[in-house]
Design goal:
Length: 210
């Protein structure tokens, strides 16, 4: 924008390959159906990111995506666990920008207003900003500084992620702000909620096989 030139937006996404993404949804949708749903969520995330109005947008992919959106700098996530990959992404982006906001691709509840609120918090002097997720993790993390200690030793994928991250922020002595809680799509019951709330235009039918 035109409003957030000092901040960069970072999107993490995986190649939507059947059997390798959203595997917990496969009993409901089948492996191909789960991959198609994830592909739709990637597209939705990129639309949300574009509407937020950031001048600088980065897409860190794990695997090859079918189509590459215009206006994004593309990078590979590389090896390692989620924390190691996020730390590397922030290290790279923060060399060029005062702050960076990172989101995944499976939280349709995030809105452009949420992304702009994160940018405002960082511009206002916060060292970090988080959008808590209802499952105990977080759907957004924004930073003005980077530290390996923030990401090391976190039990990724467990409901303790947010609590552990808060502990590390406190130990670092950083100031942080938490935005509204959101939910992501990981379990079969989340698909029903996705339909009810109409966050994606296309409906996905339950299918027991891939």
């Amino acid at each position: 924008m035109q409003g957030w030139p000092e901040a960069a937006l970072v999107v993490f996404a995986r190649a939507p390959q059947p059997g390798r993404v959203k595997t917990r949804l496969a009993p409901l949708l089948g492996e191909k159906g789960a991959a198609r749903l994830y592909e739709r969520m990637i597209a939705n995330t990129l639309r949300t990111a574009s509407l937020a109005g950031f001048d600088s947008k980065w897409l860190f992919s794990a695997g090859k995506l079918k189509s590459l959106p215009a206006g994004y700098q593309l990078r590979s996530q590389g090896r390692g666990n989620l924390g190691e990959r996020m730390h590397r992404a922030f290290a790279l982006v923060l060399k060029q920008h005062r702050s960076a906001i990172l989101i995944g691709s499976d939280c349709p509840a995030l809105t452009p207003a949420d992304l702009r609120a994160a940018a405002r918090a960082l511009r206002g002097g916060m060292d970090a900003v988080l959008s808590p997720a209802e499952d105990g993790g977080y759907a957004l993390i924004g930073l003005r500084r980077n530290s390996r200690r923030l990401f090391k030793g976190i039990d990724w994928g467990e409901p303790s992620v947010l609590a552990q991250t808060r502990q590390r922020l406190a130990r670092l002595g950083w100031r942080w702000e938490e935005l509204r809680s959101v939910w992501d799509v990981d379990r079969p019951e989340d698909v029903a909620r996705l339909r009810r709330e109409g966050l994606l235009a296309r409906r996905f039918r339950s299918r027991p096989t891939s």
